[in-house]
Amino acid sequence: MLKKVAALFLAAVLAFSLVGCSGQAQSSSGTQSSGASSSSSSDIKIGLTIYATTDATSGPMCKNMQAACDGMGAKLVITTDNQDLEKEVSNIENLIANGCKAVFCLPYSDNSIPRIASICEKAGVYFGFYWYDLATKSTHDVCYNSKYFLGNIYEDDVWSAYTAMQTLNKAGASKIGMFGLPTGRTTTTKRDEGIQKACKEYNMNVLVTDRVNTNTSDAAASSVESMISAYPNLDGIVIAGMTQTCLPGVIQALKNLHLNGKVKVACIDFNENQTEYFEKGLINGVIGGHFTGCAWLAVLAINKLQGTPLTDKAVSIQDQFIVLQSAEDAKNYTSYLYNELPYTKDEFAKMSKKLNSSFTYDDLLKTIKAYSVSDVMTRHNKT
Amino acid sequence: MSFGLHTIVVKERFKMNKKIVNFIVVLMVPVFLYLFFLLLRPASFGKASTIYIIFTQSFITCIIAWGMQFLVSMGEFDLAVGAEMVLDCIFAALLSARIGFAGIIIGCIVCAFVCGVIKSALYRMMRIPIMILTIALVYLLGATGGLVTNSSALTIKSAYTFLGRAPGNIIVFAITGFVVYLLTNGSVLGANVRAVSGSVSIARNNGIHVESTKIKSLILSSMLAGIAAIIQLSHGSGVTPSVGLDSIQNIMQPIMSVFIGFVMARYINIVFSIFIGSILMSIISNGITALNWSSSIYNVVVGAILIVIMAYMNIAEISVRRREEKTGAMKNMKECGTI
Lengths: 383, 339
Hints:
The complex is a heterodimer of chains A (about 375) and B (about 350). Chain A is of the alpha/beta class and about 375 residues long. Chain A folds into 2 domains: about 25-155 and about 290-320 and about 330-380, 3-Layer(aba) Sandwich (Rossmann fold); about 155-290, 3-Layer(aba) Sandwich (Rossmann fold). Chain A has 15 helices and 13 strands. In chain A, the strands form 2 sheets. A 7-stranded mixed sheet of chain A has the order 1-3-2-4-5-6-12, sandwiched between helices. In chain A, helix 2 runs parallel beside helix 11. Chain A is globular. Chain A starts with a helix and ends with a helix. Chain B is mainly α and about 350 residues long. Chain B has one domain: ABC transporter involved in vitamin B12 uptake, BtuC. Helix content of chain B is about 80%, strand content about 0%. Chain B has 13 helices and 2 strands. Chain B has helices at about 1-40, 40-45, 50-75, 80-100, 100-125, 130-150, 170-185, 190-200, 200-205, 210-235, 250-265, 270-290, 295-335; strands at about 155, 240. A two-stranded antiparallel sheet of chain B has the order 1-2. Chain B is globular. Chains A and B meet through helix 1, strand 8, helix 8 and helix 9 of A and helix 3, helix 5, helix 6, helix 10 and strand 2 of B.
């Protein structure tokens, strides 16, 4: 009897933990806001699948998309996939089954795009990608041949990686150890390209690359120790992604080796501790803040679903990175873009053509292009 | 009589010489592997600091492997150790934010103990293979860590990280090694584990409680994982919650070290042979970095070594069994007067 009870208990705990592992599916409803507001009851539901919801990049991403949905009168459902391709695809299917009329994701492989497009087309659901440039012809054609493809928001990953290397060069580094993203993604290809471009221009050299030990601090710390041991003349480290998880380990390893300040560090993606690291002179530059992409996709989708599309065609929009190169930059970012939102619900409400008929696609592009810390401070009267 | 005494002395000296020879034979394996990489990258491997890095990077792997070896020798695999370590680090990081450095020690050890007790209690109730039980626990423990931290990474203060570098990590490792040596070679648990690993039925017939031995080994595995977690958290200064089966990847190196340790245990004590196995893993890892090969090659190399070792152990086991059967058959035939 005890055995049966224990078996049932364990099965229930396993089921619970599987739900917990799959992340929280958060839903919210559109709320009234002052000024131009949407109607209180809205049946527009959009879905987002993302690797996490609480770190220094994904957290603001979700909050901004939430603000967009709240301001424009839509519901948002968020699921997490921990960068697992199969999980991402099943999340999309679940979001569609949950009633989402548009779903957004970051494809973890070019090969997944035809699958995602097929699922959405069969369900008659709009889809779009954030942080993703449709650089290859095959993936571009698959998406643009689908009437349900809304668009993709991408960043200039060549520029971001180039800027990170430029930061290291300005700090005096030329022999670089690199933490890179896994291969097979356009983002990886672009960032590698940017790094190589900087190497040629500034006569820098990537001595060693690690694409595996980026998911935990301890693994990153061990990797740095091995890099320094193998290449004692290494004077710079560039983290071309997954800064959220590996930067603390990199900094700790450099401390243990008494190389803080001697080995320069620049990264792509923000980390919760970056302000402290800047204040102590442990890092030289961070490029990130690219968390408004999902909000722009939401603006496109909600306008479309409200019957007032901003554009008739699928679009590919480049949004902006934010570059932090000092403690003051980091503090301003934290105060005005992280603790508060760069765009309020009211500002997003004005992007709904249903509520503000004068808003156009060109206005959206201008807003996206102007994105920066100083822009936010000016708009919110913080200067 | 003097001839008999001389014979005993010669035999003892022969045994000692054999032990020394065996030790040298085993030691040559990492030495040759190191020399291999030294030839390929003399600038990297020809330094004392590289040897230091190789040693210190083997500590975490080795401590986990020491904990796993008790169960593995009895044919059981505890796959939840990686997830336990992540959870230990999470609670340690949260506790250290409140009570300082002591939180790291208390958090890791207490969480490890609780995980060990839970595992043991479930094993006792369910009586299913430990591997199946622990696979389920991997999900549970990972989900618990994610819920507690809201899926965000945690860091500890730099001032609390001294156990992640010399001499802190060396002291912890040495003390742990001494305790494991005593447990393996000088304790009732160690003797019972050896008996059960030889033959479960014979051990049971001789009054050894097999399930109790496995339960104690489960708890010991968790406690040693807790100690490894202290060094790991101090070394990286941060922890990221694991999801799904990701944490199993963290124990692949320790499992490899255990298997290599078992192969070498024919020559030297298992505690030292597992340490040698951990060093081999560390040399390979550093060698691949020094040669700037793709990190994926490490997985290929480790996988290939694992297959070779498993094949070797399988063949050796079959060979021994056939020899025993043949010896048993010959003995029976002699007793029956057939030969």
